[in-house]
Amino acid sequence: MAKNLILWLIIATVLLTVFKQLDTPVSNQEIAYSQFIQLVQSGQVKKVTISGATIDGEFSNGQVFETIRPGHDPKMMDDLLEHKVEVQGKKARAAKYLESAISCLVPYIGNYRSIYVFHAPNARWRRRWSWPDGVW
């Protein structure tokens, strides 16, 4: 029973990792912040989403872009509103410590047998908890 639970946890972790990787958006065109301000002032920016220091946006022609705001720029909001850019805000994305920890453990999961064999305290314990032949 415990072996089945561990197997399903490993499978779920791998599937979660794969789906998270597939869920990431297509990379945007990265532009410099100074270029972003010039494009806003020339009216070529349609909308932006601000999340912490990251600014994702869309040009008037439909292309998407991304830039990073260096420091605090109080004049940026005035420029955006003056040039009728649609502005949305999002919470800054927190660090994903759990995903980071799991991704560090993935190489060991694939190599579980060597860890298991070298860390078994004695042969009797190893025989009692060993995987049946043909399972792995």
Could you characterize what this model shows?
With about 140 residues, the chain is α/β, with parallel strands linked by helices. The chain has a 5-stranded mixed sheet with strand order 1-4-3-2-5, covered by helices on one side. α1 crosses α4. The chain is elongated and about 70 Å long. The longest helix has 22 residues, at about 1-25. It has 6 helices and 5 strands; from the N terminus they run αβαβββαβααα.
Rg, Cα atoms, Å: 25 Å
CATH fold assignment of the largest domain:
Signal recognition particle alu RNA binding heterodimer, srp9/1
Q: Uncertain spans, ≥5 residues at pLDDT below 50?
A: none
Roughly what is the average pLDDT, rounded to an integer?
76
Which CATH class of the largest domain? Answer: Alpha Beta
Shape: elongated
Return the structural class: alpha/beta
Widest sheet: strand order?
1-4-3-2-5
CATH architecture heading of the largest domain: 2-Layer Sandwich
Helix content: 40-55%
Main sheet summary: 5 strands, mixed
Q: Provide a count of the helices.
A: 6
Order of helices and strands: HEHEEEHEHHH
Distance between the termini: 16 Å
Number of DSSP strands? Answer: 5
Q: What is the percentage of strand-forming residues?
A: 15-25%
